[in-house]
Write a structure and sequence with these properties.
Elements lengths: L15 H10 L54 E2 L2 E6 L18 E2 L4 E2 L4 E2 L19 E3 L3 E3 L7 E5 L21 E7 L4 E5 L10 E3 L8 E10 L12 E5 L7 E6 L3 E10 L3 E10 L5 E3 L2 E7 L13 E5 L2 E3 L3 E6 L7 E2 L4 H5 L1 E7 L4 E5 L11
Parallel strand pairs: 7-14
Antiparallel strand pairs: 1-3, 2-13, 4-5, 6-8, 8-11, 9-10, 9-12, 12-13, 12-14, 15-16, 16-21, 16-22, 17-20, 18-19, 18-23, 23-24
Length: 380
């Protein structure tokens, strides 16, 4: 068992053997822990966790000032190489797609290679002081919807989840001088349309979710490209704005479908003697997918009132159950099987001047009609 299983301290004398044991304990191979050779600690097989703040980095100096943030490296990339499209327009973002493999997505940890006539990258054992052996990548999870609708009030999100680890040990976006003032963004592109949008806050301030606005998109198939962006656009833009864009590890390019719910409502009402109004309605779904509608209501109101107005005395609002309308079909909801569509003992003034309404999906769809005495209305 390694003396330092999770963290190599910065304020204690640590031997080469203890460093080797820590790496092997956490999955490193090709290292002799009995009589370790220093150079083997700087190989890919050593399984150095690049998500650790402190780890071996490329720097031409033989010694580094350990009282500084030396591990951030002069280029602000914390020892990493990251693919980018520099100084381009958002239309250049798809050129990064070839790097997206669902894992590192082109990110590479640049281990020191030693000193030769071609480069000077000393292998400093001191770079392991403060090494966080259980560090994880800076992106722990990524989610992007594969289907959204361009109508209604639902807000879909593209999100990254961040690693759990001790600050100053576990690498975070805010530790990257190159990225801390940049933004998490997405290009949503079809063959004929594209929008670009970012999180509201910088990565350094925890901006890791984007509230999409699919009502800006026409129905169709789109590809969603996640990037780190030097420009901000929390409101979707179709302008080909200029910026520098980087890939994101453990994110993925996603295919997304934008659909319209394509629902229509027909409402029917009939007045009967004794101050009774009976109603029914049809919901027609012309889209290619089933629709489940919740937050549904029926109303009996004065005919000069809108369905969203505050209810007057004697006006009625009733909830009705969740409805599911299959693709390319019509659902009829009638008073003959649903008594909540029957309004009885209505005061004369309201009875003579009433209108019945239906609202579905929390008010996304609505329609109303003035009930008549004619019995031949619609088809129940």
């Amino acid at each position: 068992m390694a003396k330092y299983e999770t963290y190599i301290p910065t304020d204690t004398a640590v031997t080469l053997k203890e460093m080797a044991e820590t790496l092997v304990f956490n999955g490193g191979t090709g290292i002799d822990t009995t009589n370790p050779v220093g150079s083997t600690l700087f190989k890919k097989e050593a399984n150095i966790r690049w998500g650790s703040c402190r780890k071996p980095v490329r720097n031409q100096n033989d010694f580094l000032d350990r009282n500084t943030e030396w591990w951030k490296t002069p280029d602000g990339l914390c020892g990493m190489s990251v693919p980018s499209v520099g100084g381009g327009a958002i239309g250049s973002i798809p050129s990064l797609a070839s790097y997206y493999d669902g894992a590192m997505n082109g990110w590479e940890y640049l281990l020191p290679r030693g000193v030769t006539s071609s480069y000077r990258e000393p292998m400093r054992w001191g770079d392991f002081l403060g090494y966080y052996a259980i560090a994880t990548p800076i992106v722990r999870g990524y989610s992007c919807p594969t289907s959204v609708t361009n109508v209604g009030s639902t807000t879909p999100y593209v999100m990254m989840s961040l690693p759990i680890g001790e600050e100053g040990k576990q690498l975070q976006w805010k530790d990257f001088d190159r990225f801390k003032d940049c933004f998490f963004g997405v290009l949503i592109k079809s063959t004929s349309d594209a929008i670009f949008q970012t999180a509201s806050n910088t990565l350094g301030a925890g901006g890791v979710e984007i509230a999409l606005q699919p009502n800006r998109l026409a129905e169709g198939s789109y590809t969603v490209y996640p990037v780190v962006s030097t420009i901000a656009s929390s409101t979707p833009t179709k302008e080909d704005v200029q910026g520098t864009f980087y890939t994101i590890p453990y994110a993925s390019v996603t295919e997304m479908t934008v659909t319209g719910l394509q629902l229509s409502i027909e409402v029917f009402g009939r007045k009967e003697s004794g101050g009774t109004v009976k109603m029914w309605f049809r919901v027609t779904n012309t889209s290619s997918r089933s629709q489940t509608l919740s937050g549904n209501y029926v109303y009996l109101r004065y005919k000069d009132k809108d369905v969203g107005d505050i209810l007057d005395v004697n006006e009625v609002s009733r909830s009705i159950p969740t409805l599911t309308v299959a693709a390319y079909s019509t659902l009829t909801y009638t008073y003959e099987t649903n008594s909540n569509l029957i309004f009885s003992n209505i005061p004369t003034l309201l009875f003579n001047n009433c209108k019945v309404w239906v609202t579905l999906s929390s008010g996304t769809y609505k329609n109303g009609v003035e009930p008549l005495y004619d019995i031949n209305i619609g088809d129940k």
